[in-house]
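Hey,
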Amino acid sequence: QAVLVQDFQSNFQRRALEAMQLLHVATHWHLRGGARPSHVSQRLSSSMAASMPLLSPSLPLCAGPTCGPTRSVAGVAATAAAAAAGAVASRRRLGTHPTAACTRRATATAAAVAPAASDVPSKLNPEEVLGSESPLVGFYDVVRVAEAEAAAKLPRFVPVASLGTDAGPAVASQVWVRARVAAVRVKGKSTFVVLRQHSLHTVQAVKFKSKEDGGESATAVAKFFKSLPLESLVDLRGVMVEAKVSGCTQSTVELQIERAFCVSKASDQLPFLLADASRAEADIEASLSTDRPYVRVLPDLRLDSRWLDIRVPAHNAILRVQSAVSRLFREALTKRGFVEIHSPKLIAGESEGGAEVFRTDYFGQQATLAQSPQIYKQMALSADLPGVFEVGPVFRAENSNTNRHLCEFTGLDLEMPIDWHYSEVIDVVHETLVHICQGVEAECAAELATIRAMYPSEPPLVPSDGPCIVSWPDAMQLLAEQGIERDPMADLSTEEERKLGAIVRERRGADLFFLDRYPSAVRPFYTMPCREEPEYSNSYDCIFRGQEIGSGAQRCHDPALLEARCAALGVPSEPLRAYIDSFRHGVSPHGGVGLGLERIVQLYLGLDNIRKAVMFTRDPTRLSP
């Protein structure tokens, strides 16, 4: 009978969880005034019908804002809430306990499930938790800046990542940690809490019935944690003891709870559960053929609450890798004597030419957001800086709703003097990218393991003995051998880039190569044409895993040639007057490259969408958050 009850409860919670998740998605579409995708309505109908007997299986769901009140999302929500409340009451009558705190909070709010916590002290000052008469559990008042003298006496927190390591406290030590409540399980008077710190590190904290107080403290701890929504932030004091905990990163120790205080309470109802948002796509797909399919958290729902989505360990680790790529880029060029610059982003002209710019009013003048720091890094060389680089925002007004385009991204730009040939720039770019790839693998091993558990990928093949260079005519020949007929002077399509990348990987054993000598007609106005064949240019693209991650070239440093290029391509030269004039006073031949940070991270990690590699997305449909 106990097994049957547990199975019923688990099945109910799973169905109710999916229903509430899909209901949130349906509400999201409804509030935007659009029709829900049919698969959402179908799954919502089946999930509610299976998990909530008070909801008629034949109840039609609203497909837009014109539905009547009894058929609207609000009506469904009210019915679902009533069904959930009835089910909770049924579970209480059966005397069962939830097997996982996350599913318990998804099927009903914490207030409906958890016991009242009115007897738990609230509005505590942090100083009150240190005395011998301090409460066992409680809620802080809003934490504000403490007096310096008082702050010196307050607890010093131990990093969760150090627990159970040689660098951390000894076994049997009393420690304080500040972390999020990731999961709670209460069985009788035994409480098991998983605490998560900085997304990547978890430790189990436990409280059992004590003979000394007859279980009074265990009861208080159980009530306290059952009253807390998941993702709440707590301060916990405990004694670290040896234990085998397979579900936490700190798998050799656990904390025996002595005190626990809530620092910041999360909302009772989260937009989605991190347990659902953290599953690999392969696991979700595999579950669809079973009677217990996992919930798939849809991309828009993730982006609407991106701060919560970044708490997913893999997504948090992606941003750490992004940070490492940026740091390694700086590191490689600084060692070469390059100087970091910060160029203006409000400019009078167009740094790349064309119409893909954001325009704005600048005190009565028309200004644009810079498409790149191109003109300013060239002017920096005219100012006799030895070589420059910049890590900064880039704006492109491209109405491209793809998995690889953004309207704002972070550019990794460099510019350097050339002695005799622009291949000198290719060498520096290649060595910089090799430094980045080797550094990421060496320094981000833990983060890569976390990411690859959710998004499987292999380290890229990057030649360490010099750049792999493929000339434009050779690339056209390679594509022709594969039966691809195309205009040899037209730019590559996305699919042609991918095909060429696969060919080069197969034949040259490289995921990174430079496609050299692009046709002049498809390059920006500042690109230097080839002397012998002006229809081609001294320019190249960096292709990484079959996609462009950046473009580079030797630049036109002769004012007359630059003005001629502007005229030929229809680029107004007057807004660029200061840029052109900077070359009239003498400047070294030079070249450089502009790389996209987010695209490098996306392709390095094998992510299916660039939005997973950016903190907050800016694309044609999203300006918030």
